[in-house]
Write a structure and sequence with these properties.
422 residues; alpha/beta; 8-stranded mixed β-sheet; 4-stranded antiparallel β-sheet; elongated; disordered C terminus
Length: 422
């Protein structure tokens, strides 16, 4: 039996200590990485475009497909503004002092599971708070919201300037009234807000000249908020779209598999961030399958009243596009109205050209006469251009049109009161 000498035991002990130190070091590195995700944020090109636009416009919409990185980009930027920690590559707006921020989604549960999770960490495990984009070392305090397990009402964040920023979580389901109390520097809407909530968010930033960031997949179609960005052009507003081809974490095979997994009427919205006109499912009576080519793609504009709608000319959806339907109905009516003229049947001995149907008679009241192909007779007072008739010598009516001055070349009708005397 071989015995272990002192030197061998000492070597084994040293190796064990080294392994434990190595494990502890790796654990610490992992902890630092997990509690400071912001330091490792490397955006794709379209995400960088979204960030950079904040330096020149007040309102930004990041409209992208599902799981492409729009909410992640929104969370990363929100964390930068709250902490004042901006990377070297940053070209967007910078706040050099602590700010007040509103961030929310459709409901408190969705706000918790989306916005809060990305900023703070898994909501149902307090030990993991600080593993989101807001570094754990900068989280000073949190307050919980009653009624939604794990949901937070506010977070106090340490800013590099020495003060503290305030993050307030909101939900659209509260209505615009719950968004009224605060004057803030920054508002982040994750998922599409109702129009009244959106404008309340703008109002909250008026005094501070704050910024509005919106991130969503346009499943509701051409809503009021989408139309504001796409149709109401402004130098203080910009929309950035991101398609599945811009998401570098997918392989070409994965992209094709994801695209094929969506129903046809949602495919453009979920993979390209293109609003589907109507926004509802195939049984909802909406314009299924119709989407709009926007932002650098071919455009076709159809005008209905004063509301333009950009629409792709897709044959299987043309019948569902309202403006095209109205156009198809209007064309024959316009052609019919242009071709119809009110020309009464002329007498056998002549004809007279009258005004088209619907034409307004010349509003020139005064003594007038009825001018026919054969004669001119007095016709009382009134405007010119109205249909009229004179009595012919054989007792039949002679059709004509009223004029103010009788042409000198035409004979004046005899006094009809003398025609049938003796």
């Amino acid at each position: 039996m071989t015995s272990t000498g002192p030197s061998q035991g000492s070597a084994a002990s040293e190796l064990s200590v080294m392994l434990r130190e190595q494990i502890a070091l790796l654990a610490e590195l992992d902890r630092r990485r997990r509690t400071n995700l912001l330091a490792g944020y490397q955006p794709y090109r379209k995400q960088k475009d979204f960030h950079a636009a904040g330096a020149v416009v007040r309102e930004r919409l990041f409209m992208a497909g599902n799981q492409l990185g729009k909410t992640l980009a929104g969370a990363a930027e929100a964390a930068m503004h709250l902490t004042g920690r901006y990377p070297d590559w940053w070209q967007g707006r910078q706040f050099d002092k602590p700010i007040v921020m509103l961030a929310g989604s459709e409901s408190y549960e969705l706000t918790r599971d989306g916005v809060q999770r990305l900023l703070i960490g898994p909501p149902l495990n307090d030990d993991d708070w600080g593993t989101g984009f807001i570094p754990k070392a900068t989280i000073v305090a949190t307050t919980r919201r009653s009624g939604a397990s794990g949901a937070l009402d506010s977070v106090t964040v340490r800013h590099v300037s020495g003060g503290t920023s305030t993050l307030l979580f909101k939900a659209y389901e509260q209505g615009r009234g719950k968004w009224q109390a605060n004057t803030v520097d920054y508002v982040w809407f994750d998922e599409e807000p109702p129009e009244d909530v959106y404008f309340e968010g703008i109002t909250r930033t008026n005094a501070t000249r704050g910024s509005i960031a919106v991130t969503f997949t346009p499943l509701k179609g051409l809503s009021a908020v989408v139309a504001r960005y796409l149709m109401e052009k402004s130098p203080d507003r910009e929309v950035i779209t991101m398609t599945i081809d811009d998401a570098e974490h997918y392989t070409p095979e994965e992209r094709q598999r994801i695209i094929a997994s969506y129903p046809a009427h949602e495919r453009e919205a979920r993979t390209k961030g293109v609003p589907a006109l109507g926004g509802a499912g195939p049984r909802g009576g909406s314009d299924r399958g119709m989407d709009m080519q926007l932002l650098g793609q071919d455009r076709r504009w159809c005008q209905v009243g004063l509301k333009p709608v950009a629409a792709r000319n897709r044959a299987n959806a043309m019948k569902n596009l309202r403006c095209i339907s109205l156009f198809l109905i209007a064309v024959p009516l316009v052609l019919a109205s242009c071709s119809e003229t009110a020309v009464p049947t002329a007498p056998a001995r002549g004809s007279v050209k009258l005004q088209p149907a619907g034409a307004q008679p010349v509003a020139k009241p005064g003594p007038r006469q009825c001018t026919t192909p054969e004669q001119v007779c007095p016709y009382g007072t009134g405007p010119a251009g109205e249909p009229c008739s004179c009595w012919a010598t054989d007792g039949s009516p002679d059709i004509g049109i009223t004029t103010i001055e009788a042409p000198a070349s035409r004979p004046t009708a005899p006094n009809t009161s003398q025609l049938y005397k003796g």
